[in-house]
Recover the amino acids of this structure.
């Protein structure tokens, strides 16, 4: 007996194709719905995340400033870079402070959003955390500025000591005999730096240690004077004075910045104390509520115990109900 075999491959391929089309339609129908409702953050969470990122950025800048401020070179201590970093950090701190005040006002006075007590408590905890972090950053910034101020004062004192020592050394030297015989110069037409050692009254012996600014004599008894040392000393004093002025301005800038950061630190401390008072009041209210709940529970338990202990009352009530039932049956 032979079996008939039918080739149904084409039907199977059609079924697979139709099944793929149905799956694609369902996928295309579900995908826009998933894209239409993305997970969204609340406005409070967005602002808090922005403030946290700004605090991290300020912390990185503050670490760079601390490395630069703790260096103690007399020259090339990068004052321009330190000043720029100080200005940027100060502006960032003020911006974060304003954002935190706006966020605090949003938590207190935003009546358009209905939140429960847990959400309010979470918002206050986030504010306290941000305030504490900002307080630490401000304190660290103030410490770095104080270190920078101490280094500036030390560099200023060292520069003043160096310049005063150089000036005392220059003034303590004996006057050069060539300077004393300046009215008896000879051969000024050919070389003004050549001076004759012979005075009109008596000859002056050559002493190389007496005047280091004069070279060894030539064969004709003339000396080569180098008068640029005094000019170099004056130029050094002028440069030192300019350097001291720059240091003084830098110290004044640091002092003003420290005062501003101190005021900001006081504002942050005030905000933290206000948040602490609010949390304390909330804790007191929670304690009062728990006491009231426990008192009500005790009263209910007393009433339940009183009812369960008075069984004779139940019998009286049951007897009265039975009497009324029989009366109703007899009357009806």
């Amino acid at each position: 007996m032979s079996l008939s075999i039918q080739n149904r491959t084409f039907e199977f391929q059609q079924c697979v194709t139709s099944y793929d089309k149905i799956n694609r339609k369902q996928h295309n129908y579900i995908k826009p719905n998933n894209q239409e409702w993305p997970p969204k953050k609340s406005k409070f969470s967005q602002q808090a995340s922005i403030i946290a990122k700004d605090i991290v950025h300020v912390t990185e800048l503050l670490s760079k400033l601390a490395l630069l401020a703790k260096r103690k070179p007399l020259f090339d201590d990068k004052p321009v870079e330190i000043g720029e970093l100080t200005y940027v950090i100060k502006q960032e701190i003020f911006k974060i402070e304003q954002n935190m005040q706006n966020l605090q006002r949003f938590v207190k006075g935003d009546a358009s959003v209905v939140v429960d007590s847990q959400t309010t408590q979470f918002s206050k905890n986030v504010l306290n955390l941000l305030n504490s972090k900002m307080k630490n950053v401000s304190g660290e910034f103030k410490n770095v500025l104080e270190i920078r101020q101490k280094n500036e004062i030390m560099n200023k004192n060292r520069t003043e000591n160096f310049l005063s020592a150089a000036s005392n050394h220059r003034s303590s030297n004996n006057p050069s005999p060539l300077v004393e015989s300046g009215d008896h110069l000879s051969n000024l037409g050919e070389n003004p730096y050549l001076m004759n050692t012979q005075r009109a009254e008596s000859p002056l012996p050559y002493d190389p240690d007496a005047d280091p600014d004069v070279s060894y004599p030539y064969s004709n008894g003339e000396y080569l004077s180098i008068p640029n040392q005094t000019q170099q000393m004056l130029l050094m004093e002028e440069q030192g004075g300019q350097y001291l002025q720059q240091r003084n301005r830098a110290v004044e800038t640091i002092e003003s910045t420290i005062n501003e950061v101190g005021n900001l630190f006081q504002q942050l401390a005030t905000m933290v104390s206000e948040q602490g008072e609010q949390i304390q009041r909330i804790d007191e209210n929670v304690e009062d509520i728990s006491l009231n709940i426990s008192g009500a529970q005790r009263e209910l338990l007393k009433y339940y115990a009183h009812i369960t202990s008075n069984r004779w009352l139940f019998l009286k009530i049951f007897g009265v109900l039975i009497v009324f039932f029989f009366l109703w049956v007899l009357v009806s």
About this structure: Helices lie at 9-36, 43-69, 79-109, 117-172, 177-180, 228-309, 311-331. The beta strands are 194-196, 222-224. The CA atoms of residues 51 and 100 lie 7 Å apart. Residues 228-309 form the longest helix (82 residues).
